[in-house]
Amino acid sequence: MKRVTLIKDNRSFIGKLRTQTPVRMTESQPKKADLSRLFVAAILALNVALSISIVLLNKAVYTYFFFPNMTLTMIHFIFTTLGMLACRFLGVFAVKSMPLSKMIPISLTFCGFVVLTNLSLETNTVGTYQIIKALTTPCIIVLQTLFYSKSFSTKVKLTVIPIILGVFLNSYFDVKFNFVGIMFATAGVLVTSLYQVWVSEKQSEFQCNAMQLLYYQAPLSAIGVATIIPFFEPVLSKGGIFGTAWSAKALGLVSATGIVAFAINVSIFWIIGNTSPLTYNMVGHLKFCLTLMGGFVLFHDPLSSLQLLGIIITFTGIVFYTHFKMAEQKEEKERKEKEAHERQKAVERQELLKLEMEESSLELINIEGKTEGVDK
Q1: d(CA 283, CA 264)
Q2: Pick the residue with more confidence: 15 or 154?
Q3: Among 6-10, 47-51, 122-126, the least confident range
Q4: CA 182 to chain centre
Q5: Which of 246-260, 287-301, 340-354 has the lowest mean pLDDT?
Q6: How far apart are the first and last CA of the chain?
């Protein structure tokens, strides 16, 4: 009786396995919170406002108060460090242990890209500063192709042409053209590109998110900048942080830039974690346009027709780059999901075949048992 019952149980299980709908396997992703559209829109608007504000506030600090550049960068890192400690205390993220020896190179590039982009902002118009930053995209493509054996489609590579052309037109016809400023901006693009590539590599290597990485970067970067400030900027003499009687307005504005710098990092982390990459990129395009507009309105940066043409061409290249990259990422995701689905089906077929073989064996045993009973 036990053998007959076992056979029936197996047949029942096989029947269920044959009729059940295959489970579609997808890549594991953290569950998104069920947030209202209004709240999401508010965070996106806040990120846009903060990102534009940090550029304009920094420019105001340099233009109206002549605050030392590297010192301001160090203050930003200190505010970010304090903010990350507060986030850790509030449980916003979990600290992940990482070797400091591997954090030092990425922290140095973090220092470099912030210092150089701030120097670019100080010495260039807001428009030129913002446009030259667009060269980060083609620079990353070159770095990943040459040193990381990563391939890009022809469509993506072709978007580099309008980006470079637009940057050239804007910079060449800028009536406030500053050679030193262009050198700072160019160096900033190179270091920023290297930093972004390394961030991606380290996140993959240590299986961590941006905030876990920033938790180590910010204090190391603050120490790094602090050690070189005495060689490039006054500290105790006139113009230095401790050698000048800064007004309450200046100190308030500097503090505001530090708070905004930290808030931008937190809002970016939230947007990436709770919306789609497409949303994040579209917000980036909006910030690009509004920052340029803010520079023209607040600082009266001159704009020739050829500069405007350069901005339009650059923006077009960025939009097409985003479109092609998003389409390719979607195709890659669908391909991986399809492969996972096929693997699941193969596992189910193997399980079904195994159970059918067990059923056949049990039936054979049952027949043999009946034959032995008849002989007796």
Answers
A1: 13
A2: 154
A3: 6-10
A4: 26
A5: 287-301
A6: 18
